[in-house]
Amino acid sequence: MFKKMKLKKEIEACKKRIAELEGKRSRSQAALVEAILTHTEPNDKDVDFFNMFTKQIEEVRDQMHVKMKELEALESGK
């Protein structure tokens, strides 16, 4: 039972972390979209930030999916 509660808390923490990272990524994403729309070269820092935050989001999502599968296995009794 304790393991299930712990996993649920960790999954919620992952969701919050993803939301935080997506918020941080949105600034560079907006700058990239603006560059596309104005047919200009995007700032290298904006590209780097976008890539960095995207990678972090993917890593946290992967961790969350592992925890969700673990929780599902516990709940199904496997």
Verbal overview:
The structure is a single chain. The protein is mainly alpha-helical. Helix content is about 90%, strand content about 0%. The chain has 2 helices and no strands. It has helices at about 1-35, 45-75. Helix 1 (about 1-35) runs antiparallel to helix 2. The relative contact order is 0.17. The mean pLDDT is about 95.
Keywords:
single chain; about 80 residues; 2 helices; about 0% strand
Provide the fold topology.
Elements: H1 2-37, H2 44-76
Helix pairs in contact: 1-2
- Straight-line distance between termini: 14 Å
The helix/strand order is HH
> What is the number of helical segments per DSSP (H or I, 4+ residues)?
2
Strand content: under 5%
Q: What is the number of strand segments? A: 0
Characterize this entry briefly.
This protein has helices at 2-37, 44-76.
